[in-house]
Amino acid sequence: MLYHFLYPLVDYHSIFNVFRYVTFRTAGAIMTALLLSLVLGPYIIERLRGLHVGQQIREDGPGTHMAKAGTPTMGGLLILAAVTGSTLLWANLTYRFVWLTLFGMISMGAVGFCDDYLKLRRQSSKGLAPRYKFAWQIVLGLGVGLYLYLSPGDVFTTRLSIPFIKWWVPDPGWMYVPLVMVIIVGCSNAVNLTDGLDGLATGPVIMASGAYTVLAYVAGHVAIARYLQVIYVRESSELTIVGGAVVGAALGFLWFNAYPAQIFMGDTGSMALGTALALLAVLTKQELLLVIIGGVFVIETVSVILQVFSFKTTGRRIFRMAPIHHHYELNGLAEPKIIVRFWIISFLLALISLATLKLR
Question: Can you tell me the distance from the alpha carbon of 253 to that of 263, in angstroms, rounded to the nearest whole number?
Fold first, then answer.
């Protein structure tokens, strides 16, 4: 919005030329989202407390979590407000990828909101039935995949960038549609599974979205993309602003979500953020790199899959409890230590993912 109102004024004063630069507007988006989160946070926390929107604790979870019962949840509303407001303020709104990312994030946030609402209404840790959640995720994923397949921006829209390999960019054709669906469904659920301790999911989201902010800038800059031999995606330049807004909003939310948490993001936030990361991966043509960037989310998801598979086939559990962060809790590791160690791992994975830009 500022771009459309202020950049045209460059004819009157050269100072308005700064709004042409994606880097300047990304910095503005990060700071705006951060400030929105910090300013709106106390108000939203108090409102949620007044409405008795408290977290429902799963009965089979670690006993130490019972003390968290009643902590305000649905904090994802704060994240969505900050990301949306900041993006609309700083992005060039003529780029369709900006709207596609916002649409996907808000849509999945709405599904998560329904899940959180049902948990509160039933006073139970069980909300929206998994089949309905998966159904909406699949619909969104297929919708995005079909849109990109039927309305490609260029010949590389459905091609895949393979990490560490520069000479092979395969085109799966119509199979790209279900691939996009799998990425969106998988990432939104993976972030949701990780959100089990105070700030545990928020930290890796900051690292991952920060990495994708850099990747979006690289993919959207023709000279840098050519130099690093990555797929050039013209519209991804404005995704830098969206990624920056996610970073800022998550940082502001972490101010209140850090141990001991004053608010939880709930499925409203975790499913929205997971979808945002998935869309950033797809639209910057770094889909497969998401496995490395979101490595913490992958580990958490794999631990659940292995636990379920082992129990159903052998009747035995691999972990004391899944996702794996609960396993470490039950082994006596302090919650803050688990959280910070997962953050460190996520930071290292983000650095490794950015290193792949040169290791080709």
Answer: 9
Angle between helix 266-283 and helix 96-122 axes, rounded to 10 deg: 160
**Within 13 A of 151's CA, how many CA atoms are on the CB side?**
8
Alpha-carbon distance of 270 to 108, in angstroms, equals 9
Distance CA 43, CA 214 (A): 32
Q: Give pLDDT tens digits for 260-291.
A: 999 999 999 999 999 999 999 999 999 999 99
Q: Are 207 and 349 in contact (CB under 8 A)?
A: yes
Q: How far apart are CA 355 and CA 269, in angstroms?
A: 29
Beta bridge partners of 54: 72
Report how far apart, in Å, the C-alpha atoms of 351 and of each of 92, 166, 300 are: 28, 19, 20
pLDDT, tens only, 38-75: 999 999 999 988 887 766 655 555 655 555 667 888 99
- Spatial contact of 79 and 219, defined as CB atoms under 8 Å apart: no
H or E element: which one contains 66? Answer: none
Nearest to 203 by CA among 245, 259, 242: 259
Centre a 10 Å sphere on the Cβ of residue 14 and count the other Cβ atoms it contains.
Answer: 8
Alpha-carbon 230 to chain mean position? 23
Residues 93-102: what's their mean pLDDT? 96
Is 350:210 a contact under the CB 8 Å cutoff?
A: yes
CA dist 88 and 103 (Å) reads 12
* Backbone dihedral angles phi then psi of residue 72, each to the nearest 5 degrees: -55, 135
The C-alpha atoms of residue 40 and residue 31 are separated, in whole angstroms, by 14
SS3 state at 72: strand
Q: Kindly tell me the burial class for residue 119, based on how many C-beta atoms sit within 10 Å of its own C-beta (0-12, 13-18, 19 or more).
A: buried
pTM as predicted: 0.94
CA distance 358 to 163: 10
Beta-sheet strands, E only, within the chain:
none
The answer to whether 323 and 314 are in contact (CB under 8 A) is no
DSSP 54: B
Cα dihedral 41/46/51/54 (nearest 10): 70
Q: How many residues does the chain have?
A: 360
Q: Please give the helix or strand (H or E) that residue 181 lies within, else none.
A: helix 176-194
